[in-house]
Amino acid sequence: MEMFCLKCRRKVTVEDSSVDESSVNGRRLIRASCPECSSNLARFMKATSTT
Ligand SMILES: [Zn+2]
Hints:
Oligomer: single chain
Helix content: under 10%
Bound molecules: zinc ion
């Protein structure tokens, strides 16, 4: 998936296998590390209907 890296200041492509997904306050939190600079990327996704 594509995520925006703040350090690289551009979109980077993260392998699905290296994406860590968890649930925070009913929202899905996607975490991964940038393949370019290996800094942490985090991004909230819209929650799937899990209330
Ligand atoms: Zn980066």
